[in-house]
TrEMBL record:
It comes from Deinococcus rhizophilus. Belongs to the Mrp/NBP35 ATP-binding proteins family. InterPro entries: FSCA_dom_sf, MIP18-like, Mrp-like_CS, Mrp/NBP35_ATP-bd, NUBPL-like, P-loop_NTPase, YlxH/NBP35. Signal peptide: none annotated. This is Iron-sulfur cluster carrier protein.
Amino acid sequence: MRDALWAALKTVNDPELHRDLVSLGMIERAEVGGGVAQVKVNLTTPACPLKGQIEGDVRSAVLAVPGIKEVVVTFGAMVRTGGQPALPGVKHVLLVGSGKGGVGKSSVAVNIAASLARDGARVGLLDADVYGPSVAHMLGRSAERVTANAERKMQPLEAHGIRFLSMANLSPAGQALVWRGPMLHSAIQQFLKDAAWGDLDYLIVDLPPGTGDVQLSLTQTIQVTGAVIVTTPQDVALIDAARAIDMFRKASVPVLGVVENMSYFVAPDTGLTYDLFGRGGSQKLGGLPLLGEVPLDMEVRKDSDAGEPAVLAHPDSAAAQALTGVARALAGRVSVQALADLPDQLPVV
Ligand SMILES: Nc1ncnc2c1ncn2[C@@H]1O[C@H](COP(=O)(O)OP(=O)(O)OP(=O)(O)O)[C@@H](O)[C@H]1O
């Protein structure tokens, strides 16, 4: 019956990866005794957007095996990498960029990080927006200062389960940074390589807006898994977003998807929906996966000023749900990308 159980599991495909769970090495354990099957599925990310569907598919395939009356499905997760890790201990570096400033890039980056961490991933957040660092404020830690550990490496700060580093925690508050390209390059290098990030599944990098030195420096010096573009839906933002996409393509960084922020607004008093900036405009960016449409929501702004990401402070709001969806869709895209180049038969993990 054990063979029949494994054969049944071999008929279940991961809906995103389009390969069966057995050859993907995702079945950690499958046993049967007294008509009860115990199956442990090791997902490719704890933020798997399709966990419910996988559970349902496993359940129906296993219950079709003669003699099995009950099935208990449990889950674990191990984030995979396609090749070498980006940095020692860091599996994926994900850039969050935008063409235009003020479109909500940092808000999206912070909420992606918080959502992935809440789902159980080990997450770092690097604020590479050195001219306008806002991550520390959005995490409620702008007053803290970064210290060095015994190995003289920068020790990332921690908030809401996220390890993070921001220029705001290094320089005196309120002071402007007047840096040229080479200095920026070395600051970014230090943030990446002279910091004790530890083991991370995802290191999210909040880039400055536009297509400048920091972006170039990052894409040229480490193996980046991919980039996410945040835009609002109106044409002036889309024109700049298209430039940012072009820059990533030229630097051979895969663009994993687009987030349409401030996509629409639901008036809290009337419940009427307003497409203030032209909801759906991001489709004009042509063919890139849309990771989510995040509404304009006063709570998102208030939560970020209060230092608690909306996905944690108001998880049931439409904006938080959309941001959670963005984080999970992104994690799914990363898994697809990591497994795309792997051989047909993977070892069981
Ligand atoms: N969906 C949203 N609803 C309401 N307010 C939002 C939303 N997204 C972002 N904001 C607010 O808009 C402002 C700008 O957001 P944010 O700093 O994230 O943008 P940015 O693109 O990173 O800006 P910069 O160009 O300075 O890096 C912030 O006050 C933020 O709280």
